[in-house]
Specification:
Elements lengths: L8 H23 L20 E7 L2 H6 L2 H7 L2 E7 L1 H4 L21 H5 L4 E5 L10 H9 L3 E5 L6 E2 L2 E2 L2 H4 L2 E2 L9 E13 L17 E8 L1 E2 L4 E6 L3 E9 L2 E6 L12 E2 L6 H14 L10 H14 E2 L3 E2 L1 H15 L5 H13 L6 H11 L8 H8 L4 H14 L4 H11 L17 H28 L5 H15 L12 H15 L6 H17 L6 H16 L7 H10 L6 H8 L6 H8 L4 H11 L2
Parallel strand pairs: 1-2, 1-3, 3-4, 4-13, 9-14
Antiparallel strand pairs: 5-6, 7-10, 8-9, 8-11, 11-12, 12-13, 15-16
Length: 617
């Protein structure tokens, strides 16, 4: 076993730097007038320009399928997609009662923070009442810089009881006194879908002039004077209308997927150019997000500094209520971190915090901040690693993988081997002789050791050093016996052993091991089925979904050297459960002509669109 090393002198320098630079800054903010330390005080922040992040609010499942939303996402270069369903909203799909707290993102402690981790939200045939009180969250999301595409429901903007909050942001005009429901126009023979007056294209892509795509049912609306009509039914009925609202953008599509095509006709939802046209619309909508804020402003930073001081007073010590409040606000803050200055501030804040953090929160902070950090954060990472605190060690290891440095791999190897915070090395406890509190402490130490090893594995993967592969493969093999899904059984949950195995195999892929592409795709596809079987009680499914999203985010950072292996494995997959994996691995990437052709021949339409996007550019 490797000898324990003394902290480096430069780590002492980093600690001094934190004392000299960060603490006075925190003191200045804390001295400012007190403000309400709720998540809302942290403000609004959006992802920077790049591959799109999209959240899909699903209505009836056949609408999502018929609108071909997944194919549109593939064409638009989306690489991260989340979704919510009727079940997630607690809304009855076929009538009857709904949950008391029914609504979009119900049960989410920070709905706005969840929303603003996306460039765009797509609402797929969902009535406004299904959003509950969080209608306003979506409106504010757009008002401050986000974008939304509403694939309309007749009750999208209100019902008999009155106007919904969505009517405020819609690029549509409504009568002063209602009605707020949309009136349906039916055309059994179908009416031609045509470019609207504000569409740049004179002809729809892929459409035959004498046999255009047809619409059989749509809602009658009137566009606002400053709105743009991109698609129309017949000569003048607006179908796709876009407009600005606050700092964001809104698009409304008013055609339904109802109707029966006559022989030889092409329903618009089967039109070959539909994914391409709507993908361009998504890209135009999301372009505005690049001008929106990407991190915390001064008032948000002051709120965090105030909460940190309440959590620990230099004279009175720790305050449990204040501690929980600070941790909750810190969790909300990382959802608003989309730039380097915010990431560096939050990392410095935690390094200066006198107390430790829960391991799960520390891991979440590390994974969220790392994409925005570089070698300038290596010293702070080492300070955290040398803290002797389990949570801070976890955070430091994850950040060290992103920051790198001469001794980064050796440090990560050390903690993968020991699983023990440095200041605690050499201590020992015996379950046979310990009294109950000591037994509890030893059990906690075992949990901490497992979490520290996970963080070391994650850091080694982020480091991207091929020399780390032997250690990562050894870890994956050690976890495989209990962590790999068995072909003859159906797992009912993603257990800790599964997570350890998946973490190690994905880390090997990120370190450049193309052979890990197959196992990574295998468990990501199977995870989708396992999540559908996971009980919803006590947050089990929510935890599983969050884990899957972490894996997708890490997969999106896969190096170019493993893309070919990923593409070949994804192209061979026969399950539609591969959709989100394909988007994370390949969405927005430049692919070789050979890989694009291979993907375009996939039986999974979303995967095929990833190839066609490249071929038809």
């Amino acid at each position: 076993m490797r000898m324990q090393r003394a902290p480096h002198d430069r780590n002492h320098f980093a600690a001094a730097l934190l004392t000299l630079c960060v603490l006075p800054l925190l003191a200045a903010w804390a001295a400012a007038p007190a403000i309400d330390c709720e998540a809302a005080e942290l403000g609004w922040s959006y992802p920077p320009a790049g591959p799109l992040r999209v959240h899909v609010v699903q209505g009836y499942s056949y609408y999502t399928r018929n609108y071909r939303v997944d194919e549109v996402l593939a064409r638009a270069g989306v690489n991260l997609v989340t979704e919510s369903t009727q079940e997630d909203r607690g809304v009855s799909q076929w009538g009857g009662t709904s949950a008391v707290d029914a609504g979009w993102l119900r049960g989410c402690a920070d709905p706005a923070g969840f929303a603003m981790d996306h460039h765009l939200v797509i609402v797929c045939s969902v009535r406004a009442s299904s959003f509950g009180e969080n209608q306003k969250v979506l409106v504010d999301f757009v008002k401050h810089g986000g974008s939304v595409l509403l694939l309309c429901d007749s009750y999208a903007f209100g019902d008999r009881t009155g106007k919904s909050a969505f009517a405020e942001m819609a690029p549509l005009e409504f009568p002063a006194e209602g009605p707020w429901t949309l009136e349906t126009e039916s055309a059994s023979e179908g009416v031609a879908l045509k470019p609207g007056p504000d569409c740049d294209a004179k002809q729809l892509p892929g459409a035959v002039p004498d046999n255009p795509p047809r619409v059989y049912s749509f809602y009658k609306v009137k566009a606002k004077p400053d709105a743009k009509v991109l698609l129309a039914a017949g000569e003048d009925a607006p179908l796709l209308i876009t407009g600005e609202f606050g700092k964001g953008r809104v698009a409304v599509f008013t055609a339904s997927c109802r109707g029966y095509a006559k022989e030889g006709q092409i329903p618009y939802w089967e039109w070959s150019g539909w994914p391409c046209f709507m993908a361009a619309t998504l890209q135009q909508l999301a372009a505005g997000t690049g001008d929106a804020p990407h991190g915390l402003k001064d008032n948000g930073r002051r709120a965090l500094a105030e909460a940190m001081n309440e959590a620990h007073d230099l004279l009175d010590g720790a305050d449990e209520q204040g501690r929980h409040r600070f941790e909750a606000l810190l969790d909300a803050a990382i959802r608003r971190c989309h730039d380097k200055p915010t990431a560096e501030f939050l990392l410095g804040l935690v390094a200066a915090y006198p107390l430790d953090l829960p391991g799960e929160l520390a891991a979440a902070i590390g994974q969220t901040l790392s994409p925005y950090l570089d070698d300038a954060s290596a010293e702070t990472a080492r300070t955290l690693v040398d803290s002797g605190r389990a949570g801070k060690t976890i955070l430091g290891l994850i950040v060290l993988g992103a920051a790198g440095g001469d001794d980064a791999r050796a440090t990560l190897d050390e903690f993968l081997e020991t699983g023990t915070p440095r200041a605690e090395s050499g201590s020992a406890a015996s379950l046979a002789t310990a009294d109950p509190p000591s037994v509890e402490a030893v059990m906690q130490a075992e949990q901490d050791a497992a979490a520290i090893r996970r963080a070391a594995v994650l850091g080694l993967g982020s480091l991207g050093d091929p020399d780390a592969l032997p250690a990562l493969k050894e870890a994956a093999e050690a976890y495989a016996a209990q962590g790999r899904y068995q072909a003859d059984t159906q797992a009912a949950a993603i257990e800790p052993a599964h997570r350890d195995y998946q973490n190690a195999v994905l880390a090997a892929l990120l370190a450049g091991d193309a052979e890990s592409a197959g196992p990574v795709v295998d468990f990501l596809v199977e995870n989708v089925s396992v999540i559908s079987r996971t009980p919803t009680e006590e947050g089990e499914r929510q935890s599983a979904v969050a884990w899957q999203q972490q894996l997708y985010r890490r997969l999106a950072a896969a190096p170019d050297g493993v893309v070919a292996a990923l593409a070949k494995r994804i192209a061979a997959e026969q399950s539609s459960n591969v959709t989100a994996t394909a988007l994370a691995a390949l969405g927005g990437r430049e692919l070789s002509p050979e890989l694009a052709k291979l993907l375009s021949e996939s039986s999974i339409k979303t995967v095929a669109e990833l190839g066609k996007r490249q071929i038809e550019q």
